[in-house]
Amino acid sequence: MKLKTVLLVSLLVLVKFSYAQNFKLLRFNEDYSALKGSTRTFYNRLKYLPLSESGRTYVSFGGELRAELDRAQHEDWGASNVGRNIFLLQRYQLHADLHLSGRIRIFGQLRSGLENGRKNGPRPIDEDQLNVQNLFIDLIPYKGMDDRMTIRLGRQELQYGSGRLLDVREGPNLRLYFDGAKVAYTSPKWNIDAFLMAAGRVKTGVFDNPISRKSSLWGIYSTHNAAKMLHIDLYYMGINRDEARFDDGVAAENRQTVGARLWANGNEVLYNFEIGYQLGKFGAADIRAWGGSMDIAYRFANLNGAPTVKLRSDFISGDDAKGDGKLGTFNALYPNGGYFGMNPQAGPANLLSIHPNLSWNPVENVLLSLETVFSWRQSLQDGIYLPDGTLRLGSSNSNRRYIGTAYISTVSWQISKFLSYNAGVQYFKTGDFINDVIPQHKDGVFISSLLGFKF
Predict the structure, then answer these.
(1) Mean pLDDT across 152-178
(2) In this predicted model, which residue has the larger pLDDT, 186 or 81?
(3) How much is the average pLDDT of 381-393?
(4) Taking residues 32-45, what's their average pLDDT?
(5) According to the model, what pLDDT value does residue 339 have?
(6) 3-state SS of the chain?
(7) Are residues 369 and 426 in contact, defined by beta-carbon separation less than 8 angstroms?
(8) Of 319, 239, 249, which Cα lies nearest the Cα of 283?
(9) What gap in Å lies between CA 224 and CA 219, rounded to an integer?
(10) pLDDT higher than 70, residue 11
(11) Quick check: 259 pLDDT over 60?
(12) Could you tell me if residue 207 is left (phi over 0), alpha (psi between -120 and 50 degrees) or otherwise beta?
């Protein structure tokens, strides 16, 4: 009880003595050096605490508290007869950003994710009692007038493009992290990253997550700012897994991905086109897979609340035939599953989907969104997969293609610069394929309520 009281008082103090902030998805991308000559309020000292007379050596602190109450009904479409699940998820994060000079920096972040109430226990994305989320050192061997090169060594989060292949996964209780090295070059026209990583592995105890010494992810990702309304991403990524599971079987996987993305976020027109091709080996079989996606949106900036209409679609390959010496199932590596719905039922493998979306700000700091997601199997010889690529439901020789329809409504309220609230309802109507392979099939309902605080 004393701990809860201390936390509550601390939050109130922060809100009272803080100034407006725009927190970033990756907290280590925030820069508080501009507070060097600012008024020394409690919050300003927390975000910029000088450790040298010149102020070039300083430390910045921050964190997050998040509570999410979920209600899931037939989340597995009745396959295991779990029925209703009501559970609470908690996330706690605390970080320190130490700048030793203009060329050396150390960033560390602790996390705690807790789950209470699920009948079938926490999922891999739910619980990790206490562990390290980020711990790396940045070295800047070159710094020009408007460009620089940074070497980052240690545990770190990664996020590229729209998150279709490599994302931090903000939605689940536990965010992704990797152990390894990255070299980054930034300039006004180009951002180029080269990385060699090992995927993080989670145990649910205290400081017990192992550090893998075997690299399983590598690549180069570049972004070129060609014009105001034209940005071009080009990338290559490789992944290696000892026991990868697809509907075609289980085997060692070594896969290469090459892709491109064209995108822009204007005041009215927004677009995002991405295409990728994969090759490699799955056991003795050859990998030949492809994936494409399209986002087109228009924001009515002159209307009250700036309503925005958006059309998203995905074309992602599945396997054409089992045991034919070829694997056609696309592997989206570490994608942002939230792209496919609030509680996504099918992930980016063997998938054709169309999802229209309408969003609107009825009042300041409140966003309403209505979305429908229609999903089909691209190949009738392949099953459906979870957002993380795990096989969810095998094809079972079904000749039915339609997976189902998700109807989603959400509301997001930015109560203050530090406090936010999000709620949503998703109803999933099972389609012909699910009805064919699950005898006692049931439609799914998911309700979520999330309160978050960042400082």
Answers:
(1) 96
(2) 186
(3) 94
(4) 89
(5) 67
(6) CHHHHHHHHHHHHHHHCCCCCCCCCCHHHCCCHHHHHCCCCHHHHHHCEECCCCCCCEEEEEEEEEEEEEEEECCCCCCCCCCEEEEEEEEEEEEEEEECCCCEEEEEEEEEEEEECCCCCCCCCCCEEEEEEEEEEEEEEEECCCCEEEEEEEEECCCCCCCCCECCCCCCCCCCCEEEEEEEEECCCEEEEEEEEEECCCCCCECCCCCCCCCCEEEEEEEEEEECCEEEEEEEEEEEEEEEEECCEEEEEEEEEEEEEEEEECCCEEEEEEEEEEEEEECCEEEEEEEEEEEEEEECCCCCCCCEEEEEEEEECCCCCCCCCEECCCCCCECCHHHHCCCCCCCCCCEEEEEEEEEECCCCCEEEEEEEEEEECCCCCCCEECCCCCEEECCCCCCCCEEEEEEEEEEEEECCCCEEEEEEEEEEEECHHHHHHCCCCCCEEEEEEEEEEEC
(7) no
(8) 249
(9) 17
(10) no
(11) yes
(12) left
Cα separation, 391 vs 30, in Å, equals 37
pLDDT of residue 22: 81
Q: What is the pTM of this model?
A: 0.91
Separation CA 182–CA 152 (nearest Å): 5
Q: Answer positive or negative: Cα dihedral of 210, 215, 217, 221.
A: positive
In sequence order, which residues have a C-beta less than 8 Å from that of residue 271 and are 6 or more positions away? Answer: 262, 263, 264, 295, 296, 297
Torsion 287-197-342-368 (CA) sign: negative
Buried b / exposed e across 123-148, counting CB within 10 Å, b at 16+? eebbbbebbbbbbbebeeeeeeeeee
Is 4 a residue whose pLDDT tops 80? no
Report pLDDT digits (tens) over 297-333: 999 999 999 999 999 999 999 999 999 999 999 999 9
List the structure tokens of 282.
């799955």
How many Å apart are CA 351 and CA 343, to the nearest integer? 16
With b for 16 or more beta-carbon neighbours within 10 A and e for fewer, the 236-272 pattern comes to: ebbbbbeebebbbeebebebbbebebebeeeeeebbb
| Cα–Cα dist 299/107, whole Å | 38
pLDDT of 20 > 60? The answer is no
> Over 50: is that where the pLDDT of 2 sits?
no
Res. 197: pLDDT tops 90: yes
Dist. CA 371–CA 90, nearest whole Å? 27
Instruction: For the chain, give the mean pLDDT.
Output: 93
d(CA 428, CA 433): 14
Bridge partners of 393, per DSSP, are 384
**Per-residue tokens: 130:** 């206490």
Given a cut of 50, is residue 8 above it in pLDDT? no
